[in-house]
Every structure is written in structure tokens, then in C-alpha cells.
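TICKET #2291
ISSUE: user wants both folds in one file
ATTACHMENT 1:
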Amino acid sequence: MISMSIEIKNICKQFGDNKVLEDVSYLMEPGMVNMIIGKSGCGKSVLLKCMVGLITPNAGSVLFDGDDFHASDFEKKREIRKNIGMLFQASALFDSLTVNENVAFPLQMFTRNSKKEIQDRVDFCLERVDLNGVGHLLPSEISGGMKKRVGIARAIAMRPKYLFCDEPNSGLDPLTASLIDKLIQEITHEYSMTTIVVSHDMNSVTNIGDKIMLLSERTKVWEGSKENLMNSDNAVLNEFVFVSDFMKDKRK
């Protein structure tokens, strides 16, 4: 697969008088898990929504392989969106649709594939996330961890170049959260996707983060690898990372 670069340049966003993001720039590493971390309310999810086009920034650019998403026309935006997979914080499954129908939804929206081709792709994606045999069930009939896996299956259905995950471990127990982390990491490397994960879960960061950016007070205050993270002298980063005894022990 060819270039899959994502770069944000000087992103600013405010709602009324409330400034949420100020001059945020970050180059995502293609084919890797890129983490955006920070305290609740620091602007992580707003930045993610700016990147996928759910929110328009007040200033700055979001570049997909050099194409400025927000400056593009409708057709170009549609072309870029077809290459984006999205895992929402609450999975965002359609309650009235079965698991099969949820995974098939983007294929029906964006392709002209036959019913058999769509079902074959749905079956493949559900098998990839270890959910064989649940396609007939409704979201209300499966667990929270299974919903996240259905969300991942739907996100990869279109064979995206870019995968965005908003707090993928939110509401999950530690074991299930670890399984979701592993699945995201495996899929990223298996399909050479550029993955962006918004999280404040330091277990996820140290387990699967290839490149990491810390947001604080509306702007980027640090970026680097997880190896750099464990040995940084950045005071804001250390205050965020080493608040728990678990992380303090991990540094020793």
C-alpha cells in the first residue's frame, strides 16, 4: 500500500469564547499506532473530530497524503472518507440493526458490491475479530467488549488506509481492554494502516503506542516514542504519566 501519511498543521478550535485547541501540529507515522493522550477535557476528542471531518477547525490544516481535507471539495472529501475507518468511544452501533447489518452498513453506503460480496466481507471481518456466529444478534444481545469488536469489524470493512479510535477501552474491564488493544495493534500492522488512538489509559499507551503526543492546556506539550516517554524530563508529561503506583513501578 502506498503513502498513508496524516499531518495536522496549526489546528485551532474554539466554541464561542472557549478555546479548545491552539496551534496543534503533529505528523502521524504511517503503518503505526499513533497515540493522542491527555487529561479529560484537554481537547483530544475534539482534535480527532477535526481530523475525520466531524468538526471544522477555526484555523489550520488536516492533510491526508498531502490533500487538505477541509479545503477539499465534496468529491475529494468523500474519497478521503472512504479510506477512513472509525471506532467510536461508545461503539456507535445501530441498535435496530443486527451485527451483520452494522458491519455491512459502510459497504452498502460506499460500494456497488453484490449482496454476496458484501456478506463475504462481513464474514471475513467478523472472523478477524473472533466473532463468528454472532451476526444474527442485535447489539443489545452482546457484551460491551463484543460491541467494541463489532465496531472494529465495521471500521475495517472498507479496507481503510486510516483507522481512528476514540477511547477504545472506555468502560471495559482490564482484561477486555487488553484484548482490544492487542486487536488494534495486530490489525494496524497486518494491514499497514495508519492508526490514531485517543486515550488516557497509560496501559494502552505503553502496550501499543508507537508514537505518542501529549495535549495539555489546549496545545501539544510533548511527542515521542513510548521509550522516550518512560525517560522524559518533561514535567507536564511526568505529572500525567506517573500518577499511579503501577506506572511508577514500571519506570523502575
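ATTACHMENT 2:
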Amino acid sequence: MPPAGPPEIAFAGRSNVGKSSAINALLGRKRLAFTSKTPGRTQTINFFSLGETARLVDLPGYGFARVPKATRAQWQQLVGAYLSSRETLAGMVVIMDARHPLTPLDAQLLAFLGEVRLLVLLSKADKLTRVQQKHALSAVAASVKGETLLFSSVTRQGVEDCRDLLEQWLRQPSPAGR
């Protein structure tokens, strides 16, 4: 990992949920963070510098990925060490598929995060009807401590709201994201 520097916002979520796509949409880039239809493509912690003011951090996904168990265990150790010790962590964006939010693995991550400043993005919202979006948003918002937004990197739904909130976090970072 690079040495501690400017405030960091980390992106976490299940494999293939759209973490890299969200980063690309937020930064207005097409292939800054590499995307793939194959789960488990992000295998390291990737840091994206926003000049001297901030970093976005793309964490490897959890859950289903076509990699050996030993590799998954290594990812868990790496991500756990990052989340528990990174002093420059200004907040977490946990991405969940709007069609399947709050899986047991999502709940496990949220419990591990504790009191970290949190934004939950319900990705792939474009695949739901408006009524389904409303139900998913209210169910997740009632279950998590933090902000919850519908998000689609395809239609750009929620991109501006997410960007505004993250910019606010970076202007007013709190120690270790808390």
C-alpha cells in the first residue's frame, strides 16, 4: 500500500457488484478501474489518486469469485488489515446489487465496519422498476446506519448525489472514517 497521505474513501462489496463501474462513473472515466463480467477480477487493493486532495480505494470483492480458497483468504486478510488500520480512511462506500441487497456477507461486512462513516450504494438500479427501487431503498435504509442511494453506472442515476456526498466527506474528513 502507498504510505498514508490524503483522505481515502474505500469501495467494498460482493464480487461483480459494480465497485469498479461505480468508481469509473463517479470520476467520469470509462476504464480507469477495470471492469469484467467475471467475478473476482479485482485481486489487489487499487488506489486512485485525486491529486493531492484524496484517494479512492477499490477493494477486492467478497463472496463468489472463481479463485482458489487460499487466494480468497489472502484477500480477506489484506482487506481486513486495510480497514482496521488505515488512519486516512475518511469513509466507506459499500455497494450492493439493488436486486439482492443485504446478503449475509453484506451484513457481516457492515458489522465488521462498526461506526465507520458509511454510504450504501444500491447498484444496478436501472434493472428494477421504480416501485422495486423504492422498496429496495427503504428496506436497506431502515437496516443500515449511514446514507443509502440508488445507483446506476449505466443511466447515471445517483452519480451526482454520490459525488456530492463524497466531496463533503473529503472536505470534512473524520479520523479513521469515524
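RESOLUTION: both attachments delivered.
EXTRA DETAIL ON ATTACHMENT 2: DSSP finds five helices and six strands in the chain.
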